[in-house]
Write a structure and sequence with these properties.
6-stranded parallel beta sheet, Rossmann fold, 3 domains, homodimer, DNA-binding, 434 Repressor (Amino-terminal Domain), alpha/beta, 4-stranded parallel beta sheet
Chain lengths: 328, 328
DNA sequence: TTGAAAGCGGTACCAG
DNA sequence: CTGGTACCGCTTTCAA
């Protein structure tokens, strides 16, 4: 038994298929006829085929979300919030998980024009010329999230200000020899902007001895980096680009029998739940990922509706914790 | 400038649109003609509209994945693995995130018939009569994942055997007074099957004094539950239904100045990366979520191809860790 | 108010 | 090999 079509329903209700279509799309249908159609639909569990609908109709009510991963807690939260908000507007998100594969990310961009989505949101870490070119060929509302973009509309976290806050805090606690453990600058937001903010905050607070250490987003590698660093360092504070790195620092420091914050002060970025379960509580930044996702969804809807929008920055919350020692 | 259609391309190449269609679908096209078409497509960046394609063609190459959340690390891993595998077969997953909302989960099931997917995978925690009824109306390959289902095909983790292994291990380490901290039985796999396995293992190992404590999947609530339990308990081992609960146990026990495994033995389930970073290393079960996702995708493809399949159980790895004390 | 008919952008059969 | 033509399931004039 193949699925019924609008034609079948029309036949069963003894009306034309255009009338059934009108029934669904809010056109003129006599109350009497309406009832008959409703009854048949009810009995047959009929609902119109979305593919066919969006072929002819100009609306598909679908929005693409391209994300580098869903395995990251923060990404998942942002995506979930976008999802939620888009649905509340009657739109269905189509999630593309590129699994950190740049080629696939580019491919997704290409295939956007093949699927009937009304707009697309890219959770970008890196925006290359290829991205910009493909997006420019796209001819649909497009939004970059989590990354400042030199071109186009974007929603980003205020990494600079957050970094500044952390840097300033540590500086004002009296630290003068500080190490920052960051990630590759290819990730503009986390790798560059965040670091620049931290450095500016440290500098304004009077810190001049700043060491930079390159790590990545993994716990394992971070431990290695920190283990080496601890062997000979004059730093009293380690500012970490993410909470995961901070957690690696905690464990390395504990392993060599030192204490936080007595021997070393630590800060993170992220405000994951895990920070709350660290002892002592980590001094970190909590970004409002839900707000970011929600704002992105709302902006996308507005773009689809043809309204003018402008890029936005999402705020953050400073979590003082107890991992920074005041050494005055 | 609206998107070009196959008709435009045909006109530009000076051929009929059926020829262009054949060009894409591997039919007869003279080399000469082929070149001309290729050139036009290249110049115009043309690619066929997927919506239109799947309307007429019987294949849409899309598979729905309905998941209660993507914010859970394990779910995300399974989904990512499915995604990866489906794509490698040329299928595109359409992810539905129901956000733990049962009504939405049911709605998703309903809407499956409206979108042109060739099959659907449900990451289920609870399978109600409503689910079964809706699925039975579906008329497309359907697969339950992460949950044994009384009906239909499913892929599930071997929670029973894993539980048995944990129970048996603790029993054989000489513990005689044991507390199991589980979750609601509505979650059949984790709440019931896992517990049953643990109990069976304990019993076969000679344990008769078993206390059950109900918690949930959250770290916070688990701490509360464990805090109360520690006030008066004769148990020497706390078997936790998840690693998160085990982590809560670690922290509560450390907070009252006791030691693991000297004072209390702890076990978990999950094998998240977080277990590796716990001190002492947690005795736990590592389920192979990637394998689960991959197997699900493969099975779905086979179902779509009309092959006969049967439900599968995914194995696990026992991580001994060092959180269970041998008290012989 | 209603239904016939013309598409939407493709695919596939069939005659040439 | 190629192009004409009939659809896929639904929306949208438009005339009745």
């Amino acid at each position: 038994m193949s699925r019924l079509t609008i034609k079948d329903i029309a036949a069963l209700a003894g009306v034309g298929k255009s009338t059934v279509s009108r029934y669904f799309n809010g056109g003129y249908v006599k109350e009497d006829t309406r009832q008959r159609i409703a009854k048949v639909i009810e009995e047959q569990h009929y609902s119109p085929n979305v593919t066919a609908q969006s072929l002819k109709a100009k609306h598909s009510y679908q929005v693409a979300i391209i994300t580098p991963t869903i395995e990251s807690y923060t990404t998942a939260r942002v995506v979930t919030a976008m999802d939620e908000q888009l649905r509340s507007f009657g739109y269905t998100p189509v999630i593309y998980n590129t699994n950190h594969n740049e080629e696939r990310e580019l491919m997704s961009l290409v295939s956007l024009s093949r699927i009937n989505v009304e707009g697309a949101i890219l959770m970008a870490t890196e925006i290359t010329q290829d991205h910009i070119k493909l997006v420019s060929q796209l001819d649909m509302p497009f939004l970059y999230v989590a990354q400042e973009s030199p071109v186009g509309t974007h929603i980003s976290l205020d990494d600079y200000l957050a970094g500044y806050k952390i840097g300033r805090t540590v500086a004002e606690a009296g630290h003068r020899h500080v190490t920052y453990i960051g990630v590759d600058e290819k990730d503009i937001a986390v790798g560059r902007t965040r670091k620049n903010g931290v450095y500016a905050g440290l500098k304004d607070g009077g810190v001049t001895d700043m060491t930079f250490l390159l790590s990545d987003f993994t716990y394992e590698h971070s431990r290695t980096v920190i283990r080496e660093a601890l062997k000979q360092t004059s730093s009293t504070a380690f500012l970490c680009a993410t909470d995961t790195i901070a957690m690696a620092a905690y464990h390395e420091i504990q392993d060599i029998g030192k204490k936080i914050p007595e021997d070393y002060s630590i800060t993170g970025f992220g405000g994951y739940d895990s920070s709350a379960i660290m002892t002592p509580p980590l001094c970190t930044i909590r970004f409002n990922y839900e707000e970011e996702g929600t704002a992105a969804a709302e902006m996308m809807i507005e773009m689809i509706q043809g309204k003018a929008v402008q890029s936005e920055k999402i705020g953050f919350e400073f979590i003082p914790g107890n991992s920074v020692r005041d050494i005055h």
